[in-house]
Amino acid sequence: MRYKNNKNISFFRKILRFMLLLIFINIILNARGIEIKDEHINDLAKILKETDKKSLEELLIKFNKMQNIEIKVIVINSLKDYVQDEMVIQEYVKELFNSERIKFLDKQKAILFFIALNDRKLHYEYGEQIPVNIISILSSVIDNKIIPCFKNEEYSRGIYEGIMEFIKKTGGRDKNKFIKFTKSFYIIISIFILFFIILLFKIKNRKISKVENFGAGAFGSWE
Amino acid sequence: MNFKDFLKEEEITLLNNMIKSIEKQTKCKIRIYIMKKIGKDALNKAREIFIKLNLRDSDLKNNILFVVSIKDKKIVIFGDDGIAEKVNDNFWINAVKAMVEKFKNNEFVIGLSGGINLIAEKAIEYFPDKKEEVIPGQIIYFEK
């Protein structure tokens, strides 16, 4: 009987271990449960309008090209939908940022902006090569633009305007690139104008030379 | 001076009549072209205008053009191959010089009629004709 009991206990232990293993696997899988598409905006809470999402996507692509900083935004309803235990958002975002599940061209120059709407939490992780001023702008945009909108439950507006504000502020800061752009733009335009003038002169000269050489005459000036 | 005010109505009539009476005696056509700016290459420009006014379309290639550029203060006398063969280069130069002298004193009509008379002598001499009436047409042109 005792032997039987021991056998049962051992069997239950095995089942328990197996269940624990399943739970553990489940936790791990759930922790990695967010399906992240290779897009700049992953709106899993479906809070953003399709048009806003598209324009933000385009803006972030442009921003990446201009500033060489890749930003990805993930919006979910609640972290609890993906994590079973009480995982804090900071840990989760950090793990996600460092994992291979989210793809960045260069993680050192990337920002992951994570919003859990129903949890009323947001957090961002960034690569080591992101300049301090960019982070301070992001922080100020969160405080002054995004959070006030979120407090009024204007989530879509908060995300859209927040990102717009951030791009506007950081885009304006990189004056060197802007100067480089305008300089090269003016150089190209000047070359084009010069080329056009030369072309005009050549056409004019060609026109004159096309006139058959005939007749004779003289000219004078009464100045 | 506005280049269109360069000649008064009566002066235009005077020059028109003068040229018409010359053309009764010669196979040459004489035309006057008044323009704002002729530029540096005045002779070539006159050649272009000559073609534009269809003066090249004559069998004898004997038509003559006077170009007056008001802003550049330049005068050009240009003749087609037919008449150019008959006179030497000095003839054109002297005719222009005579006109310039009058133009310097703002005697534009006198200058023009003087130049026309000089040319007319050669035109009548080398391409004589006797017509009752000349074919009607524009004689003095203003650049548009």
Shape of chain A: elongated
Provide the β-strand percentage band of chain B: 5-15%
DSSP helix fraction of chain A: 55-70%
Beta-strand segment tally of chain B: 4
What class do helices, strands and sheet pairing of chain B give? alpha/beta
Number of domains of chain B: 1
Query: What percent of the residues of chain B sit in helical stretches (DSSP H or I)?
Result: 40-55%
Secondary structure layout plus pairing:
The complex is a heterodimer of chains A (223) and B (144).
Chain A: H1 2-31, E1 41-43, H2 50-67, E2 70-76, H3 89-98, E3 110-116, E4 121-126, H4 132-151, H5 155-173, H6 175-210, E5 216-221
Chain B: H1 9-23, E1 30-35, H2 42-52, E2 64-69, E3 74-79, H3 81-86, H4 89-104, H5 108-126, E4 140-142
Parallel strand pairs in B: 1-2, 1-4
Antiparallel strand pairs in B: 2-3
Helix pairs in contact in B: 1-5, 4-5
Q: What does it look like?
A:
The complex is a heterodimer of chains A (223) and B (144). With 223 residues, chain A is α/β, with parallel strands linked by helices. Chain A has a domain at 41-176: Diaminopimelate Epimerase, Chain A, domain 1 (Roll). In chain A, 60% of the residues lie in helices and 13% in strands. Chain A has six helices and five strands, in the order H-E-H-E-H-E-E-H-H-H-E. Chain B has a four-stranded mixed β-sheet with strand order 3-2-1-4, with helices on both faces. Chain B is globular and about 40 Å long. By secondary structure, chain B is of the alpha/beta class. Helices cover 47% and strands 15% of the residues of chain B. In chain B, helix 1 (9-23) packs parallel to helix 5 and helix 4 (89-104) packs antiparallel against helix 5. Chain B contains five helices and four strands; from the N terminus they run H-E-H-E-E-H-H-H-E. At the A-B interface, strand 5 of A face helix 2, strand 3 and helix 4 of B.
